[in-house]
């Protein structure tokens, strides 16, 4: 057992853990941040391969998102390029221009006149619609009432997948989709040299304000309750701490805490469904078809983007980093091999001859894009309950954070927000423990 007792031990140095560490340490708490991996960042890390920076699948920062505001508040300013609108819309028969403006929609050969009118009405209406007014409906239910034409409906589903990275219209709350779609209208950035630069800046900030950040430390158990808690590491070390904040997925935290299925953590695990995607990350010597830098498929859940068209991601200026992605559905079991073939065929269609230009590639068959889909039920619960899902009330001193938390944000933004919110909650709770203790002594 190590002698020192920490105020808060944080499990996981992804965006949620790093954010919480900075807020807690700068408020004067003794913070220990333990990361299993050999580097910081979790799913926001970047790999450098042959002079090319590959994020873990396509990663974009929402210009008006809560995450960027939090980063600025913490003194971190990502260096990034803004994505310019434009690209291709692929159908089974043809490759069209992506209709992202009223004029583009008008001249698109992809939709009937009736569908164009319907889409124009829909896109104008939803840019102003209050997302909360449709939170009680699934995307499918809402879309059924809002759009009749098949291609018009498919187009909105493609935009919904693009904004939310999910392909579960029968579960996801329409309110979440609309909020995220509206956010994406404000624009997105691709980060120069990848998201690792943001992660490293956050890590440096955490260390500056006094957090003890350690990599290569796998937590294997969480025991006890506030203020006598223990975190056990894989090498057998036991760490004494008043509080534990876990940013591992709810199911991993359930195992670490050895919780009962009927406990709050058990119920949470039943409720939270992760969202997965298949990612093909590719670096090429040059782009065979330089006119196509971005594409969506109308009928299939495919995405393509040349991120180096916007951000500096290669040491050699001619080289390019592409991300090709399939949004996996929560209901369907899919084959990793077939998904890879589909992604490669999509790339063949957009960039014929790409294999001759290959520098390096990486295939991630089933990566969790977010650890929890904001379903109608979870969004409703989050509005109605006073105690958030992140406070494990049947295990005082145990807290949770991560991108699975339902707040007004999604994806990385949800991770940053949950990290900030739980840090604020822990500080308030510690303060009330302190006043109770001093009050009792008086
Ligand atoms: C393919 C893909 C594309 C994405 N695109 C976007 C995008 O365009 N825009 C966007 O905003 N978001 C995007 N995201 C989502 C974003 O990357 C995540 O929401 C965010 O990185 C999650 O941060 P987190 O801290 O919640 O979780 P994680 O990054 O998973 O961090 C949890 C950390 O805990 C550590 N850990 C787990 N168990 C233990 C243990 N027992 N002991 C010690 N450490 C442990 C893990 O190693 C990990 O580092 C994308 C994600 C993926 C996968």
TrEMBL record:
Gene3D superfamilies: 3.90.660.50, FAD/NAD(P)-binding domain. Residues 15-251 form the Amine oxidase domain. It holds the Pfam family Amino_oxidase. It comes from the Bacteria. GO terms for molecular function: oxidoreductase activity. Belongs to the carotenoid/retinoid oxidoreductase family. CrtN subfamily. PANTHER family: PHYTOENE DESATURASE. This is Phytoene dehydrogenase-like protein. The lineage of its organism: Bacteria, Bacillati, Bacillota, Bacilli, Bacillales.
């Amino acid at each position: 057992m190590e002698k020192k007792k920490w105020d808060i031990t944080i499990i996981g140095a992804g965006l949620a853990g790093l954010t919480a560490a900075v807020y807690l340490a700068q408020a004067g708490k003794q913070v220990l941040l333990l990361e299993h991996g050999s580097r910081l960042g979790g799913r926001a890390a970047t790999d450098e391969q042959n002079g090319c920076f590959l994020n873990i699948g396509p990663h974009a920062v929402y210009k008006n998102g809560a995450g960027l505001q939090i980063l600025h508040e913490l003194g971190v300013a990502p260096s990034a390029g803004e994505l310019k609108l434009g690209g291709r819309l692929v159908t089974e028969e043809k490759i069209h221009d992506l209709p992202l403006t009223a004029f583009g929609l008008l001249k698109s050969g992809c939709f009937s006149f009736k569908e164009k009118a319907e889409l124009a009405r829909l896109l104008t209406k939803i840019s102003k619609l209050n997302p909360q007014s449709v939170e009680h409906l699934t995307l499918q239910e809402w879309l059924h009432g809002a759009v009749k034409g098949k291609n018009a409906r498919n187009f909105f589903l493609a935009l919904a997948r693009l904004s939310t990275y999910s392909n579960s219209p029968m579960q996801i709350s329409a309110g979440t989709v609309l909020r995220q779609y509206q956010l994406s209208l404000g624009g997105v950035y691709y980060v120069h040299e990848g998201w690792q630069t943001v992660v490293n800046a956050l890590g440096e900030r955490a260390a500056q304000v006094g957090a003890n950040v350690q990599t290569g430390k796998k937590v294997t158990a969480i025991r006890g309750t506030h203020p006598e808690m223990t975190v056990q590491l894989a090498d057998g070390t036991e760490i004494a701490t008043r509080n534990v904040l876990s940013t591992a997925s709810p199911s991993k935290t359930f195992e670490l805490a050895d919780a009962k299925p009927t406990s709050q953590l058990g119920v949470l695990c039943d409720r939270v469904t992760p969202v997965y995607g298949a990612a093909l990350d590719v670096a090429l010597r040059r782009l065979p078809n330089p006119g196509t830098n971005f594409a969506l498929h109308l009928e299939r859940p495919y995405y393509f983007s040349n991120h180096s068209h916007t951000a500096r991601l290669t040491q050699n200026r001619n080289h390019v980093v592409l991300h090709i992605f399939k949004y996996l559905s929560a209901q369907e079991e899919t084959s990793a091999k077939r998904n890879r073939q589909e992604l490669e065929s999509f790339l063949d269609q957009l960039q014929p001859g790409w294999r001759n230009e290959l520098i390096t590639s990486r295939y991630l068959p089933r990566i969790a894009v977010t650890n929890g889909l904001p379903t109608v039920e979870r969004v409703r619960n989050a509005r109605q309950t006073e105690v958030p899902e992140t406070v494990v009330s049947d295990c005082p001193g145990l807290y949770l954070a991560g991108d699975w938390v339902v707040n007004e944000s999604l994806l990385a933004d949800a991770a940053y927000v949950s990290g900030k919110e739980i840090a604020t909650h822990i500080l308030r709770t510690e303060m009330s423990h302190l006043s109770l203790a001093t009050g009792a002594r008086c």
